[in-house]
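During the reporting period, we have paired protein sequences with backbone structure tokens. One record among many follows, to show the layout:
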Amino acid sequence: MQLSINKPSVFTIFKEYSLMALGMFLYSFGWICCILPADAAGGGATGLSLLIYHLTNGAISIGTMVLIINAVLLVIAGFVVGWNFGIKTIYCVVVMSVIMHFLQVWFTTPTGWVAELITARDGLELPNGTIVDLFNLKNRLLSAILGGICSGIGVALCFQQGGSTGGSDIVVMIVNKFYTISYGKFIRYTDAVIIGSALFLPEVGIDGVIYGYVMVAVFSYTVDMILSGNQQSSQIFIVGKDYKAIADAINNEAKRGATVIEATGWYSKDNSKVVMCVCRKRDLAMVLKVVRSVDPEAFITIGSVMGVYGKGFDALNKI
């Protein structure tokens, strides 16, 4: 008997997209209201957008540049690896870009209640275009750390709902079409290059580069803490009523690989099948939601694995 995949309810869809929007707000808030006032560098597509923002003397807003970069990457990825990156990624990119744009308008051009707040607090009027230190930390390191925490929480919320902020995720997807490369190593290398490039910007300088590396470290640790600790990948064993429907759902809905293993229930002495799936930690919540939609009563065990090598993960020659 085939189990049908239960379609998510309207409430579930609303909750997922609301949480992704909240995550993108926190991510944008961390960058615009904490990292930008600290004159710190950053990694990924947003860090590159920040570099361009400084190079153009603020002519192009960070949110607009983030949208342009991600749009170009999404189009390239569509032609290279197919149009399977999902509506959630596009949704997160658009929401993030819009929020960043408006936050930058509100907090780098003091008008209205923002101007009144800053004037009352600091006792001086800020000229148009001034980047506002919203929390009055007067410490660039603290601002960078706070920015890393806020953006890390935002990205973790997004990952838990099956979304993605695009940027480096899309680039890795394109590169892996031709070469097997470790996601973690690729992110570290690209972040190092982007942040290091800010050394040549007078607005940032060597101290801003150092704060940028601190921010990335805090950001990564925050995401790891929320997404099941420090594990790099998760190994999932699933025992359900219909292993075929579960395996098909993992392949087709979650876009992840699955392996069916012969097993015997020793209490009942009945032969059964176990579905095994290995996925990145950021994809764990999405895989579990898909399995639950097929068989809410499935027996599931999750384990942390130290390393995964093979297609779609790390290559042995990359160690």
User: Anything to note?
Assistant: Strands lie at 233-239, 259-265, 270-280, 299-305. The chain has two domains: 10-226, 233-318. Residues 10-226 form one domain.
